[in-house]
Amino acid sequence: MKKLPILLLILYLLNFLDYGITLLNRGNFEEANPLTRPIIDNTLALTLLKLVLVPLCVYVLWRYKDKPIVKIASVVLCLVYLYAVTLGVLIYASN
Fold it and tell me: Which helix (H) or strand (E) holds 3?
């Protein structure tokens, strides 16, 4: 099996951090993600989305990792997740 590119490993880590911070911050912020907003209070659905669906999507990125659009998308997704995790940490620290 081929090695997972570093950007995809970072995506996995940032997604896991985002999941944990989302659980810690529920009720202290308004969810910006339109896919997550309706299920923010449903722990099971949130867990399935964040810890099953997102990793499956990262797997799809891995399968097509040599395509230029996937490389660009991976960088953009890392930046978005980094922003989300940073905001989550700031919200948690301020409460």
Answer: none
Structural domain boundaries, residue 49: 6-94
Give the alpha-carbon dihedral of 74, 52, 37, 79, to 10 degrees. -20
- Total domains present in the chain: 1
pLDDT one-digit tens code per residue, 40-50: 999 999 999 99
In a domain, 1, yes or no: no
By 3-state DSSP, what share of the chain in percent is helix, strand and coil, each rounded to 5? Answer: 75, 0, 25
Tokens representing 74?
């991976």
- Give the CB-side neighbour count of residue 94, counting CA atoms within 13 A: 8
